[in-house]
Here is the input.
Amino acid sequence: MMLDLQTGYARQPLAFHDLSPDQGDFRQALIDGLSGRHKAIPCRFLYDARGSALFEKICRLPEYYPTRTELGILRAIAPEVAERLGPGVQMIELGGVSSLKARILLDALEEPSAYIPVDISRDHLRASAEALHAEKPGLSVLAVCADYTQPFELPSAPGGGPRMGFFPGSTIGNLRPDEAIAFLASWAERLGPGSAMIVGVDLRKDPAILEPAYDDAQGVTAAFTKNLLVRANRELGADFDVDAFAHRARYDVPAGRIEIHLESLADQTVRIGKAAFRFAKGERVHIEDSCKYSIDGFKALARAAGFRPTAHWTDPAQLFSVHYLETAAG
Here is the structure.
């Protein structure tokens, strides 16, 4: 048994399971998305290296309340969560390329058996897993490069232990409600009987708070969205005039969602190889939605997916919520 000289704990394994996730062909997705009557570009292509760096910058912006608010909630509730979960938990984080929020819970948990981050971003995931294992050599870190919306096998953790899924950041909001139900149902089955899942959920609120969070004064969010066009020019030889498109973020109050588009500022034609696409002035390309929920609305969604909501927490201003869901006992 190898001991870590700094901590005195037995050094646990660090493993990287590369399941070769397929993001799909960017060129074909772009051509298909721009060929329809209602133009769209899949939001999964936002996260190249530059896009990921821009998103990390977004999370530090003064207008972008979700990250700092969720961090505050997690710091406050970590001891209660640890008590609910008990010892020896396998913590499975969906989208584990930062691990900042995961660290808060890992620091509170009693002898967790493993941390299993899952993400499609290979380089970011590997770096994050290595950094966390260097900090916590007594913890098994089993990183999985995979698309967490698709079926795959979780690695076996040394010592086993109950499973806890962790899905922070209100990423659940990027799915339509029917998609979110199907997604949560798949994870209820994967986690298995007697498991738990902790989900960060953004709440419905005044558009005056929501819209600046997705269209900041410094223009970082606009650069993040328009990076799709920069990427297309660089990787596909497209000829987008990036400055001829504007980032638009609007909160649809009845639907309860932020809708993000790129708007053409002029009549123009864009070419991707031999394919040409005409844009009318004012025409919009759909990029992403971010659904917001009421507390009761999300609990109903979780129940429809087969979970039992047993606790939730919010910040004093009721901007954000964290939900504790359980699967049925086996």
